[in-house]
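wait is this the right file?? whatever heres the structure
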């Protein structure tokens, strides 16, 4: 299985002036980094983290799937999403931060069952509110 987390670079760096979104974005990246660190314990072949800047063509680094929607009669590409590809080539795409955090924290919990090391990630209040505790 391979995974790719794509997040808005500007949200991650706090340039949009939305501290709640910045906190959640940073938490998603922290969780993905932790999963990448221990990926072999749970059978993940690779996990990529891409920070997408405005004007990037979808930002796909490793897995060519992009979520789009129509806003004001124009196509809008999702700058935050988690893409997963299984061994059969099937892809799952999670565009909602709540779902992304849920998938990543479940992977961290699974990693925790395979090691004695503390692998938990300290999530912000904003992220904890989304996932209902961790």
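ok assuming it is, sequence goes like this
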């Amino acid at each position: 299985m391979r995974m790719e987390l794509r997040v808005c670079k500007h949200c991650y760096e706090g340039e949009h002036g939305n501290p709640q979104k910045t906190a959640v974005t940073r938490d998603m990246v922290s969780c993905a980094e932790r999963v990448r660190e221990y990926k072999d314990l749970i059978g993940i072949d690779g996990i990529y983290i891409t920070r997408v800047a405005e004007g990037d063509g979808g930002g796909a680094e490793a897995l060519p799937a992009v979520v789009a929607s129509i806003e004001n009669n124009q196509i809008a590409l999702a700058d935050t999403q988690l893409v997963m590809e299984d061994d059969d080539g099937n892809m799952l795409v999670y565009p909602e931060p709540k779902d992304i955090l849920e998938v990543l924290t479940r992977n961290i919990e699974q990693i925790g069952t395979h090691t004695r090391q503390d692998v938990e990630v300290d999530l912000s209040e904003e992220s904890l509110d989304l996932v209902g505790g961790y």
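The longest strand covers residues 2-8. so i think its the right one actually
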